Amino acid sequence: MAAALAFAPFSAAITAPDAVQAAPCAGAGSTPGACQSCLYMVAQYHIHTQNMCYEAPAPRPVQAPPSTVQVPELPPLPPVPVEHTPLVVPPGPPSPPPTPTINPQAPGSPSVTPLVAPPKGMDAPSQAVAAAKSAPAKRINPANPPQPPMQVDDFNHQVQNVVNNHGANVDMVKVGNQDLVRPRHWDYVDYDDFHRPALYNPLTQAMTFRYSYGGGYHEAFVPAGGRIVLDVASVGPFPFTAVGDSYLASGSFYGATPPPGGWDNPPPPDYSPPARPQIYEDVSVYIPAANDTVEVGQVQVINHDAGQPAGNQDTFLLDDSTLAWGQINDSSSNAQIKVTKTQPMPGFGPTDNGSFLVALAGHQDSGPAAQPWWPMLLRFGIFAAAVGLIFWTMNRRKRSTEPTETP
Q1: Are the C-beta atoms of 336 and 283 separated by less than 8 Å?
Q2: Structure confidence at residue 370 (pLDDT)
Q3: Alpha carbon of 47 to those of 31, 40, 42: distances in Å?
Q4: 315 phi and psi angles, rounded to 5 deg
Q5: What is the mean pLDDT of the segment spanning 42-68?
Q6: d(CA 54, CA 46)
Q7: For residue 97, what pLDDT is reported?
Q8: Please, how many CA atoms are within 13 Å of residue 286, restricted to the half-sphere of its CB?
Q9: Integer CA distances (angstroms), 146 to 116, 228, 256, 330, in order
């Protein structure tokens, strides 16, 4: 085979496509050079016969003349349309069911009711507030906030430490025979162009925020002077409780669905975030446990749960601080809402039957415990005796220095 391949150039050089090829050593067209090369190749590759150098190869088949028949050309195939995969925008979270509305004050309702005292605010210098509000924001997934960069106590221990220390930043309310904690109000909540809530901390101590989102409770850490932005993709208010080394506060933020294109690009010019949840002002609240009616300055409806017993299907946030359960427009009273349970620290801590609101309306802030009267009387007696002894001593010395008259 190798020899045949080697001879192909010689035969191809002297034969036409339709002619019989000559042998290298015999016949017309043979040359001494071609013959010598052929014999050399036979000896080199140990081919047992030299016939291939003296016999012409078999003739090639005669090529058929070109056909004159017209072959019709096939029409061009129609272009195959290019399928473009449509851009699938992930669906946003389901819209919450519409919350019921609170009716205006019914005719015949008491014109004067005790007002629930609003919570006290936080104390922070204005410069610290401005600096924290403009601090670089850390973007947080509200359903999976990162762990704090430092070792901190769990939320329960932090709250207990603040309450047990009885610091100046903790308010107590006496309800019956127990003292309940009333948090301060957290005022430092802002919103960006996407209507995402930003929690900023102008205090000199870190704060931990506990809130309910996506069916569970989560805790977000904000360092002193820091700011976080929560990617809240659900519409509605979210109450929270916040705790630090010596502060205990509560408040709320509200979210909105992401704009078209998500949060990574600027919102389109026609983007308008959902309206803020409605806030009802000066709402009358009936407390069945105390058979009393009070007035709350601000009320938000959080949600309505038809699966709860009648009279306890609505959840409220009172004065952006206290979580409450009850019913809107209850027919058992002339009040606008009925409250059967309250929780001073939203999402954490004890609850009561609503008497907490009655105590707040009566301004029953618990002060120091009453001291017995006898220690004060004893101290006054000792003080009076000491003053009397001083005057007696001075008077005696004065008499001893006066000259004695002689008869």
Answers
A1: yes
A2: 38
A3: 21, 10, 5
A4: -115, 135
A5: 68
A6: 17
A7: 65
A8: 21
A9: 37, 11, 22, 43
- Reported as a single tens digit per residue, the pLDDT across 131-167 is 999 999 999 999 999 988 877 788 999 999 999 887 7
pLDDT of residue 50: 66
Nearest to 161 by CA among 121, 208, 211: 208
3-state secondary structure of 243: strand
Residue 389 in tokens? 């002894």
Collapsed DSSP state (helix, strand, coil) of residue 392: helix
Q: Which amino acid is at 373?
A: W
Nearest to 398 by CA among 384, 390, 386: 390
**If you average pLDDT over residues 33-41, what whole number do you get?**
76
Q: Is the pLDDT of residue 184 over 90?
A: yes
Which residues, 6+ apart, have CB-to-CB distance to 154 below 8 Å? none
Q: Can you give the pTM of this predicted structure? A: 0.66
Which tokens sit at 7?
């001879």
Amino acid letter for position 239: P
pLDDT of residue 379: 61
Name the helix (H) or strand (E) containing 155. Answer: helix 155-165
Cβ distance 327 to 337 under 8 Å?
A: yes
Amino acid 302 reads I
**348, two tokens:** 């954490």
Q: pLDDT digit string (tens) for 312-328?
A: 999 999 999 999 999 99
How far is it, in rounded angstroms, from Cα 62 to Cα 124? 106
Q: Which of 220, 155, 182, 115 is closest to 350 using CA atoms?
A: 182
Q: Beta strand 137-140 with 322-328: parallel, antiparallel or unpaired?
A: unpaired
* Confidence class for position 270, pLDDT limits 50, 70, 90: confident
Give me 10's structure tokens.
Answer: 């010689």
- DSSP letters for 62-83: PPPPPP-SPPPPPPPPPPPPPP
Query: Hey, how many other C-beta atoms are within 10 angstroms of the C-beta on 81?
Result: 6
